[in-house]
Amino acid sequence: MSSNHIGEIEIAMPQSIAADLNVENSRTGPGVLAARRIAGGDLILDVAPRHGRARSAEEYRNSLAAQAAQLNGLLTDQHPAERLAGFRRRVAGPVVFTTSFGLEDQVILHMLRDKAIDIDVVTLDTGRLFPETYELWAESERRYGLRIRAIYPQQQALESLIGRHGINGFYMSREVRSSCCHVRKVEPLNRALDAALGWIVGLRADQSGSRHGTALVAVDDRGLLKLSPLFDWTREAVRSYALAHRVPLNPLHDRGFLSIGCAPCTRAIAPGELERAGRWWWEQDEKKECGLHGRKFGEPATSTPACTGEGSKTTGGASP
Ligand code: SF4
User: Fold this and answer.
1) How far apart are CA 198 and CA 97, in angstroms?
2) pLDDT tens column, 220-264
3) Where are the beta strands (DSSP E) in 194-257?
4) 12 C-beta neighbours (distance < 10 Å), count
5) Which of 124, 147, 279, 301: CA 20 to 30 A from 48?
6) Where in the sequence of the chain do the CATH 3.40.50.620 domains occur?
7) Mean per-residue pLDDT of the chain
8) Is 290 known to be catalytic?
């Protein structure tokens, strides 16, 4: 039984065979056939997709897009805590919340626990986080009475990366940095989301130029629904909520680290600097991210995505 209170079986298959959501086909119940595994709640008595025996990736994506539009209509006017509850109720499959213990993620964690919303809480331990982040991780588990599931890089891939480029090879070039982000973050995230139908993240639309288009519910390119419950909140609103509810926060925020990632790749920013200017600060590109939010629909989980990234005026730290 998963932490989503959904019984789950897994059957290895050489390739995906279909995808079926109960909102599309009420005969099958809330079962999901996803990449290489069957995951979901009820027994699937009959798979009768609307369009033929096996639905194409495009049909599956269109189905997700229809659900996203429906959820946006239902949830946009609600408080973020109600958005979280409504998303959990309406997504017929496992939902994962990924936290990097930033300001937004801590507020989301508080709302999930305060409302007793049953969501799988996951973090990506890159092995290079700040000591303060590990402290906050432990403090959050104590405060909210849960174990946060940690996903680690693949041992062989990490050993190979460090063997090729050294322990701090990410300073050498954009390509090496992207490889490090892929091994330590993107590939583990792909595993964390492998069986999920919903993903909760701490993105805000005013965090950066490239995040202006952030929607409340979007179709993620991994083939799932992505909820950004704080998409229309400012950093100040999030911080006010955190202080009012005594949410444990990373002390680095008060030392100029507004967006906190791996220790060797994050510095404090000066007043007026863009929010994410302290991430990979030695890179000159305007766009700087690690690829967590950019995989193309249907792209294999093992490929290396392009890293993009950016910064906006001083707002807040994002999910990983
Ligand atoms: Fe590696 Fe830096 Fe990316 Fe962390 S942020 S995964 S240390 S390159």
Assistant:
1) 8
2) 989 999 999 999 999 999 999 999 999 999 999 999 999 999 999
3) 198-200, 217-220, 224-227
4) 7
5) 301
6) 67-265
7) 80
8) yes
| Mutation test residue for ligand 1: of 123, 124, 125, 128, the one with most atoms within 8 Å of CB | 128
Find the 299 Cα to ligand 1 centroid distance in Å: 22
If one counts every other C-beta atom within 10 angstroms of the C-beta of residue 254, the result is: 8
Q: What is the pTM of this model?
A: 0.77
Best residue for ligand 1 mutational test, from 152, 266, 280, 290 (most atoms within 8 Å of Cβ): 290
Among residues 181, 262, 265, 290, the one annotated as catalytic is: 290
Question: 56 in helix, strand or coil?
Answer: coil
170 lines ligand 1 (CB under 6 A): yes
User: 125 exposed, middle or buried (CB, 10 Å; 0-12, 13-18, 19+)?
Assistant: middle
Pick the more confident residue, 52 or 294: 294
Fold (topology level) of 67-265: Rossmann fold (3.40.50)
Q: What is the pLDDT of residues 70-100, one digit of tens each?
A: 999 999 999 999 999 999 999 999 999 999 9
